[in-house]
Amino acid sequence: MKDFSYHPFNLAIRFILECIGWYAYGLLGYHLAGWGAALLLSFLSIFYWAAFAVRNDPSRSGKTLVAVSGRTRIVLELLFFLAAGWILLANHDPVFGMGFIILVFLHNLFSPVRLKWLWEQPRN
Questions:
Q1: What is the pLDDT of residues 16-49, one digit of tens each?
Q2: Is residue 68 part of a domain?
Q3: Which among 6, 5, 28 has a CA at the least distance from the CA of 97?
Q4: Is residue 102 included in any domain, yes or no?
Q5: How many domains does the chain have?
Q6: pLDDT digits over 47-61, tens only?
Q7: Is residue 19 domain-resident?
Q8: 60-88 burial, b if ≥16 CB within 10 A, otherwise e?
Q9: pLDDT value of residue 6
Q10: CB 44, CB 84: distance < 8 Å
Q11: Which among 2, 34, 63, 78 is placed 20 to 30 Å from 108, CA to CA?
């Protein structure tokens, strides 16, 4: 299978998935406590996504606030996307939620070089 880890189309899909994830957390906040909570949870999820990263990750800027190992980043991404998918399934539209989860799976299926690189990265 050809690798598309760093192909611009795959990176664009990844960014769209990230944005949908941030939307999902905002949706959860809105359902829990209104617009203030929606903004708070959206911003917290954006901070979580941006702050905990692997240094020199070629799929990102390479910069990070909190350096984590590649394995930790894989777990953090998995938790982020699975929770966002669950939120979408529970609060929005089941078809949209399942489509999101399937697209996350396909994105990672076509990114084996990135996942292998992450897996091998120690905490810096």
A1: 999 999 999 999 999 999 999 999 999 999 999 9
A2: yes
A3: 28
A4: yes
A5: 1
A6: 999 899 998 888 777
A7: yes
A8: beeebeebbbbebbbebbeebbeebbebb
A9: 81
A10: no
A11: 63
